[in-house]
């Protein structure tokens, strides 16, 4: 089996998500599609000493025959070009593929490095892909109006994304703010026909959210 991987950055979140939507609608076989916002990319660059564009970014992976994975990457590149892609790089070389994915895999460590001594207050939701750009953009506005830092990454092909609030857990003000923003996020996702979590278990922190989720008509 051959494998190819690509990374591409965009002028805005809507463009990146539109590429995800059109790629799926075109029937292109994609094994993985990951998304990071500009805040997350800045954290990754700082942590991994990279110079990737500080802009909404997608990582994609394709599996199949040698000619198939080449065709898939080239088709996505054409779709991305139609949405103003700033940079598109792809490779089938195993070592170069690992380098492309390293940035995504280091995201959590990169987030922690933004605030030495801090901890992550992670959360996630899932919405229909057609609502993904709107949900993330609105969440970014909530974060911009807050005093907390919170990068965003997501499994864009599933409409699932994570927000990683960086907090001092001994600071009650920060904990209250993280919970407030999380509540806004969950309510927004539910209003967009999504779910209160797309990947992780509910846990104690989202029991009330689960009740709201199951109460939806």
Kindly report the average pLDDT value: 91
Radius of gyration: 18 Å
H/I helix tally: 8
Q: What is the makeup of the main sheet?
A: 7 strands, antiparallel
Quick one: CATH class of the largest domain?
Alpha Beta
Tally of domains: 2
Quickly give the CATH architecture of the largest domain: 2-Layer Sandwich
> What overall form do the CA principal axes indicate?
globular
Order of adjacent strands in the largest pleated sheet: 4-1-3-2-6-7-5
Give the N-terminus to C-terminus distance in angstroms: 44 Å
Helix share, percent: 40-55%
Please provide the count of β strands.
Answer: 7
Low-confidence stretches: none
Q: Helices and strands: which structural class?
A: alpha+beta
Q: What is the CATH fold-level name of the largest domain?
A: Alpha-Beta Plaits
Helix-strand string: EHEHEHEHHEHEEHH
Strand fraction: 15-25%
Concise account of the structure shown:
The chain has 217 residues and is α+β, with helices and mostly antiparallel strands. The chain is 48% helix and 21% strand. It has a 7-stranded antiparallel β-sheet, sandwiched between helices.
